[in-house]
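Input record (Table S2, row 897):
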Amino acid sequence: MKYDTSRARNPRSYDETDRFDIEPERYELFEGPRYQFEPDRRDFLKVLGGGILITLVWRAAEAQDGESGRRVRRSVLSAPQDLEAWLHIADDGRVTIYTGKTEVGQNIRTSLSQVVAEELHVPVESIAMVMADTNLTPYDRGTFGSRTSPSMAPQLRKAAATARELLVDLAAERLGVDRESLVAAEGAVRHEASNRSVAFGALAKDRKLTQRVTSDAETAAPEDWKVAGTPVAKVDARSFVTGSHQYASDVVRPGMLFGKVLRPKLVGATLESIDASKAEAMPGVTVVRDGDFVGVAAPSEPVARQALAAIEAEWKNPESSGEELYARLKRPQEDGGGGGFRRRSGGTRGSIERGMAEAKHRLQSTYAIAYVAHAPLEPRAAVAEWNDGKLTVWTGTQRPFGVQGDLAEAFGMSGERVRVIVPDTGSGYGGKHTGEAALEAARLAKEAGKPVKLVWTREEEFTWAYFRPAGVIEVDAGVDADGKLVAWEFHNYNSGGSAIAPLYEVANQKVQSHRSDAPLRQGSYRALAATANHFARESHIDQLAHAVGQDPHAFRLSNLKDERLRAVLEAAAKRFGWGSVAAEGHGFGIAVGSEKGSYVANCAEVAVDRTTGEVRVVRAVTAFECGTILNPLHLENQVEGAVVMGLGGALFEAIELEGDAVANPRFSRYRVPRFGDMPKLETVLVNRPDLPSAGAGETPIVTIAPAIGNAIFAACGVRLTSMPMVPKGVKV
Amino acid sequence: MAEMLELRVNGAAHQVDVAGRRKLLGILRDDLGLTGSKYGCGEGQCGACTVLVDGVAAKSCVAVASALAGREITTIEGLATGDKLHPVQQAFIDHDAMQCGYCTPGMVMAGAALVENNREPSDEQIVEAMQGNICRCGTYQRIVAALRQAAAAPTGAGDRQEAAS
Ligand code: FES
Ligand code: FES
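Output record (FE2/S2 (inorganic) cluster complex):
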């Protein structure tokens, strides 16, 4: 097996990340799919047992939106692999949607069901979703980048509308009436005049019909939605509250063994010597050594642990530069075209020099952003099983087909022989794009000749996953005598280029993101660098407002043109009661931002205890707009969740380093937000039914940190420029 | 060397091997197939593994199984009465108090322990009782609202236990 973590250690430059909207380290994403998905559509119906099948194809137009160069390439490939999703109506009327997307808590199982129910005129409960199974669902490049709502939802609406029209045609034929006299409702097509109706199932019976989605299929306008856009409860909520939902870590296979992997102290260490004889002597234990991979499979978890402990191994650790983190990050990387990004690394407009000459106030600051961990509550886990040279893996990942490709490559086999099944997963936040546990479990299972379950420990999850990049951001800005921004220079070292553009109207600007030699394996994270860039920008804007003696809200408005930004800013301020006076020891802060086509503003109230330095966030208002709302209940839940996660990174979350090793790989030492950290959270959802839906899982994380920082300044006059801001309280 | 012991889980007796100071969580998940209790940290920090021991919330990942002989253990699988959900389970659905749901079984068990003993918990008491449970998806505010509802539910825990006995 090729088991090479080094390639993942050196992330691609972030320019490509931002350009393609994906996490940086997975360069595989830039290749075509390894798995040539070639369903014969007739075979397909054989499997599904007849009925009506609506297939959804990648649209050429979609490929040109600049978001995926890869898709352009795919669309010119041979026809059968162009499927994106499909919808099947069985002869008992059951509707099943097949999509390669994964459910990680963002509730797309519910919201996608809703849009189909809306167009097909069936109850939400009658829809089943088959998701993220490489044998059953079409290729999908992954669930990330807030792409499901803007791309999959409208496509499925069209698929459902196409199905509905087809059913109406079939009913017209069957009833011998004009199609215009028919209506589809409640899973049947009705002919009012003769009071007759035919159920969808009856129409699908004994058929073997496939049809492609027609782009002219008419879909309902959001204003007319009755099911979509409403607060439908999580469709399978019951299975979670009863504990019956099976995550990857809950899967059990006959004869299954339990796996564990021997870890060196540092990622990238190489194996010098090993004595596994004691472990090998244990009954039922298989020890696998393959390159720098050492693991065991044992009949029970305790035995696996004992076996692992019995192995004596010497590792050679990679050299540590010993350099302080932020100093190291600021030293631009030599390769990659001279340190900066090659493409879309930023840009220049006007002249900073000229702008600064006009400025009355000039302000320079440096902001620092620590490494943070995703820490999904379900650690990486996989169950792998080999049968007749075929491999099946159950695992929690946001990229089922990517992991399928990784497995095929690692074991030198073709993709069709690898099946990856992703049960709805214990969250990811951008942290589960990779398939380490799947590879490890598969390697162990191959050797042991039995299925193997491997669940990462929390410590492994904190150490062997990847992190949101740390960064250093330098900002230099000028404002004229009227409080107008006239110059804006912004450099981000290492954390990335997402949302790096200023948002504000500035005639003279220079923004640039720089690649660095980073000590830890880093990758995607909810909203990527947009959090870091918003923290620096919105803290700096706040400083400028104070420098010119203006109210921070008014100062923002006077420098902002974008009407969607202004709308969320005003909505948050209004709900918060911006302009009122804070209590003694309290302070108010505000911040606004945008990323991935959605818009967010936060107002926060903090209380600072001047003697202990303790900072408490008392209240946080979030205004959020992402176009047409698909489900207000789950949207609000997502917004709140993102704000809570943002609160952790703002206040106390940080990976601590000892040399290049993670020093705090456990929840007792890596603090995440808990019940006691909760402010009163209020959410204002700004619905824009006139605009297409953008994703919502990421953007609402970006402005809570600067809003809190600005509130701390208002409360006690201390300007905090490092995230996390108050891991040990604030020194007043 | 196996060390067999009888454990009472969800009203049934099971002979299990508790050798090597095995923790309850592994026994529930791997030996008894009760995978509703989750592993999140293994050090008592996250609450994903929360069960009830004689009605009191306990973190099964740190609970040494051999100390639990004769105690009544309830897991998430044993909380509902037949098809009827416990008020805390229902309240979690009503308040959309979950996203990925991985923390949910532990949250529900910790919450059930709370409302069974306190039918009018203040928000401070809720926070105090739940502080050891992490929801990385950040649904805390919804969970607090759910627990307020569950505590006030007429078919609360007391009634449930009476009905069961
Ligand atoms: S798994 Fe038991 S407290 Fe985290
Ligand atoms: S719902 Fe995901 S951890 Fe709580």
